[in-house]
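quick one: FE2/S2 (inorganic) cluster bound model?
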Amino acid sequence: MLDQSYYTKTDEIIEHYGPKAASLIPIMQDIQAEYRYLPGELLTYVASKIGVTEAKAYSVATFYENFSFEPKGKYVIKVCDGTACHVRKSVPVKEALMKELGLNAKKHTTDDMMFTIETVSCLGACGLAPVMTVNDEVHPKMTPDLAIEVIQNLKKGGAE
Ligand code: FES
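yep, here:
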C-alpha cells in the first residue's frame, strides 16, 4: 500500500501535464523519475484520472522497456553481457558484484534499496569492454576487483 503522499505527488504531476490521454507517457516518466519505478497502484490511478483504460495504460507501460514495475535501488548497475563484453569476461564481474551485495538470479535489489544489478545486451561502448554503468555513468574495462571497488566507493558515498 502506498501512502497518501504518492497520490498527492501524482496529482501534481497530472495537473502539470493536464488530465488527458496524451499526457500518459510524460506522467509515467515523471512518476518513475520521482520513485525510480512505476508503482502499479499509481498507474491505475493515473489511468482513471486521465480517462484511459487500465489495460491501455499497462500496455503502454510494458511496451517501453524503460518503465519498471519493480522498485529499484538508488544505484542501478547495468553489467553488459553483449558479445564483446562477454568474451572479455563480464560474467565474473557480475558474479563478483552479486556476491558482494548478497544478490542472486532472483534477487536483483539489496534490502536497503541501495543497489540494483541488471544485465544488458550491449551498452554501445564495446571498445571499452567489459563495461558496466552506474546510473548511466560508464565504468570501462571492469575486472571483479575494480567493480567491487566501485561498489565500496558508492557505499562510502565517495562517488556517483
Ligand atoms: S557488448 Fe558490451 S558494450 Fe557492447
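The first strand starts at residue 75 and ends at 80.
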